[in-house]
Structure formats: C-alpha cells, structure tokens
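Chapter review: from sequence to fold.
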Amino acid sequence: MEYSRFLVQLAEPFLILAALLLVLDCYLLWKGFAEKMEVYRKTLFAATLACGLIITTYGILTLAFITDSFWVKIVYSYSSSSLPFLYKLGNPWIGSNGSLLFITVLLALFYGIYRVKGSGEHNKFRTTTYIILDIFITFFILATLIKSPFEILPTTPLEGFGLNPLLQTPWVLSHPPVIFLGYVSVFFAFALLLAGMITRTSDSPEVKQSLKLALYAAWLLLTIGIALGALWSYRVLGWGGYWAWDPVETASLLPWLALTAYFHLSSGGKDSVKEFMLMITFFMVMFATAMTRGGFSESVHAFGESPVGFVFLGFAVGSLLIFLWLIRREKKPLPTIAVDTTSLASISRFVAACSLVALLIVCFIGAAAPIAGSVIAGGPVTIRAEFYTLLCYPFALSIAAALIGCNTVLKPKSYAILIAAVVGIGGVMAFFGFPTPSALANIGLPILITAVLVIAYQLIQVLRTRQFSARVWGTMLIHLAIIVILLGVFISSAAQVESRPLLATPRLSIDALDLRITLNNFTILAGKGRVYYPSHSLVAPEYSSLKTEVTILEEGVVHRGPLWMYEYLNYGVVSEPLIISTPLRDLYISMHQTNSSYTSLVRALMGETIPPKDVTLVVKYVPLVWLIWLGILLMGIGMCALFLDELLRSRIPS
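The token string follows.
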C-alpha cells in the first residue's frame, strides 16, 4: 500500500526531528532561558511534540506489521500474513531494532506525563531532571537509528519469513514489556538521582519520595518480568526448567540483584553507598540491554551481532564517570562499612546486602565472559551452569541465615548456636544422602526450613498485635518469599529425575521412571500458514504438526493429555511439553523427533499425511516446583505493599 510506504519513509525523519527538538529543549533549559514563562511553554511544547513524534513512529511500525508490509526488513524477518493479529501487535518489541524503539517509546511516554504533570512547578531539580531525560531519550533515538527498524528491502518478498515458533506464545506479549517497564523505571530513578546530586537537593522530600517510588516500581516490575520469563521457559520453551543460566537471561537478573541489595542497605549514614548501588543498578540495566542487542553471546534472547552493544556499554561507562565526578564534587565519603555490632538485625541486614552484592559479582562475571571472549580471545567463551551453582551456593545460604537474624528476637549468641545447629543437621543429612542426592542441597535445606519457620512465626506474632503496617508486612513477605523460592530451587534442582530418551510406538506401553506410558495413534496434520522459504524462493506452509494422546499410569492414578511436535519450515522441529502438576511434583513429558517422525512432518508440509512409526519421549520429575511460583506470588504482594505504602506517604503533606 502506497500510504503505508509513505508513512514508513516518514518514520526516520520523525525520529531525527524528535531528537533535534529534545536537544533544543535541553539547551534552553540548561541556559536558563526557560525561567521565563513564555519560553518555558515553548520548551514544554517542544518536549511533548518530540514525545508525540516518537510514539507516532512506533504506531507506524505497528501498522507496517498489521498491513503485512514485507518490504520493511523487520516485518519480513518476524512476521507472515498468517501470523495471528495479537502477535503482529507485539512484533515491534520482539526484534532487536523494534525493541529499542519500544524502550524509547516507554521513556518518551513516561517523560511526557512527568513533564506535563510538573508544568506548573518551577525549580532547579525538575529542570535538571528534564535535561537528563532529554539526553537519555536522545541517546535511545540514536541507538535505534544505528540499526533502524525502518530499513526497506530492495525488493518486496512474496511473504514474510515467519515468527520464531518459540515466540508464538502469549508470554511474548507480557514478559518483554514488563521487563522494559522495569528498565525505564530504573532510568527515571537514575535521572532523579543525578538531578538531585547536581542541584544538591538529594535530601529534599521531593527527591527522596520520587526516587523511592521509581525504585519500588522498578523492583516490582523486574520481579514480575523475570517471573514471567521463568514461567515461559518452564511451560513453553521446553528448556527443561525455569532457569538455564543463559548469558542474556543471567544479565536480566543483575539489575534485580543490585536493587534488592539497595533496599537492604542501611540508609542512616552520610556516605554514598546507596547512591553507588543505584548507579550499579543503572549500569547493569545498560549492560543487560547491550548483551541482548549486541549479540555478544549465543542465546535464545540474542539478536545477532550489532555495534549497538558497544554503544550502550560506552554510554554506561560515561554515566559512571559523570556519577563519580559528582560524588567527588560533593565531597561525599565513599561507601563505608558502618554496622551496629550490638544489634543482630543490623548485622543481619549488612550480611544480606553483602551476600547479594557477592551474587551480583558472580553473575556479572559469568554474563560478561562472552564479551571478554569476543574482545580478548576473538571467540565465544561459554560459562557452564556449574560455575554459578558452586559460587552462588554459599551466598544463597548466607542470605537465608541473615534473614533469620532479621526476623528473630534472639540474642546474637543464641542466634549463632541456632545457625551452628542447623548447619550440623545439614551436614548429617549430607552424609546420609537424604532427602536429595545432592550434598549441597541437603546441607542447605535445614537453614531454609528454619528461616521459613522463623519468618512465618514472626508474621503470626505481628498479626496478633492487630497493628497493620504495610511496610512491615511487605518487608516480611519479601523475606519469606526469598526463602520459599530458594527452597523450591534447592529441592526442584537437586531431586529432579530425568529418563533417558525412550523410543515409543503407538499402542505399546513403555516404562519410564515409575510410570507406564501408552501413546495413542499418531495424527499428522498437513502444513498450515504461509511463509517465504528463501532457500527455494517460494511461498510454502509455515509448519506441519504431529499429535498423540498419551495415557500415563502412576501408582494407580491415570493421567491423560496431548503431546505435540511441529516442523517449522524455517526454524526446524519444536516440541510442546505436557506438564502434569501434583502437590508433590510436576511430571514433565516432551516428544522428540526420530527419522520416521521427521520424514512424516516434512512430507506433511507438502500435503502428505502419513503417520510416523515412532517418536522419542523424555520424561522428567520436577519435585515441589510450585514453591517457586508461590514465592514469586508472595514477593509480588510484598513489593506491592511497599510501593502502595510509599505512594500514600508521598501524597500526605509534610
């Protein structure tokens, strides 16, 4: 459509114009011209117009997907005419180019609201915040244009290449936007921090309240985003679990660890420890963005090599240098260790914060290794999961021990005896190999169980007082949630059992673990959808599918459900797992290809529906994995309580 092509050609000029308007706004605010109300209105108009132009370009990109404009490279690469409408709406934030534009849009949207809401207020802090946000958004516009989502192909393909089947799920409509909202909240918080430092108003109520709200929002959104990613991985992607220590996946955890450490740091001192932790949080968000958009590692989340990654790293380093200069200008003491050694709660909070920082360092080293490998060694560097398991384990236990101390009225000596006793019990359990095959898990379980009991008891005691405090309840729920999640991770990872690949044919029962499994007849479904197949320069069906009903006999209980396997023309074979949840464990079954099933699926793409002779099954037990989902729910409730409490406090006149 000609109007669609015309709009796409306008998109890049719109972004450039938006950047110029933001630069103009930044200049006028910096020079102080905007102190005059007439000029201030003009700067407000320039900023809101720039935000409107950015949002308009995103609407143009969305329209290109909806109208199947395959002459736009990103539309061709991630869509097809048969792709469901909802995925076309979500497609702009799925690809590397579009996701940067999406983050820019979120920044512009929040900035526009913040700017209009504060239009009647005049002070140096707000003006400085506007300038910093102008710079941030301009940077994201330029980063977006480096690998523009509006690149036009020289010829128009007959069809789109199709969206990766692992992304054709409702989870892609929730997980990335929530994570990006968390990132944008961190950007806002960091802009507020810098503005407070520049104007020397960091201790003012306005700065403190705005900063806390932004950080609580970021903490909550990052938690929900990571949780949605874990559920996506567990239920759809078939990676065999909720966490795979994928480099990009690990990078997304870094800002959450930094923020969690931030909230466990003491706020009574005059040093810059909390400011440093917020700076680290911002740096980790930029690092995670660089990992995903720079293609530094082979990852399900990565989008291929791009100079954008190094641009983000450079911006992060530049921001760090400016922050350090401001710290020096204010002559603020560097982070120091100030702990009340007579208070068990103070010691415990300090230990928890240090343990979180140690986890942050371990995960950062593991995630940064691919970058170091590409720069220094000239090739990829792979960090195995065992690296994280061994190095994160002691710090996870120290967090659990610290949270016991935060939620008990014991004297330090009695607390030390308690910790020594539960560690001793763990050592005995490890010696006898009970209740899991993992010695590390067996040592840690008594500490985690003790922590659950201590925090739960303290919650009950608070409930009995009938004095509700959102801050107290929220904090205790978060502490309980962390322990419950760790308990679920320890048990589900240490005690899970997986069968070897089993050859299965219809109507013949096979034994796997303590199960008897019977497959019904195979049903082959002919090719569906339409995609462009570049290897043969033709339009062909997107995928074919194989379905079978499976009957599972488990200790007298019968489970039934479907198993699916798909052959995508441009992406290969994808298996959809069957998950049967019980209070004690999840039964995880997936179907994999054999020569027979592969041949049948390929022929089905050409219209021949000949059932295969056999398939391969993999069966796995994942015990008590529901503890992880329960912990995430409790954490979300606790964080909502803290956020709402802070929101109410900000509306009460001081």
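Two observations follow directly from the output. The chain has a mean pLDDT of 88. The longest strand covers residues 543-554.
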